[in-house]
Amino acid sequence: MAETGHSVRAADVLADVRAADVLADVLAEVRERVDRREALGEAQVAVLEAAVNIVRAGQSGVEVMPVERSELVREALGAVRAATVATGVALTCAHRTSRVLT
Fold it and tell me: φ, ψ for residue 60 (rounded to 5)?
């Protein structure tokens, strides 16, 4: 039984690491393709930055030290705030554009 529990924990840690790596790869690709001068592009990048940091902060085991976890969560919160502001700006721009077109 102990071996099974250890295997599950090791598998969970590996899954967390893979998820963070996949998100980081997506973030890198989005950074290359998205125009961050546009609010919606900035929001996309910020949301992915938050996701990467949240997944890394939630990694199981001794992979993430408490101080590092705190910093990752703090960075994720900052990215969420940036995404909220950028999304609000994108919405305002979209409303203005729709008014001009109608």
Answer: -75, 165
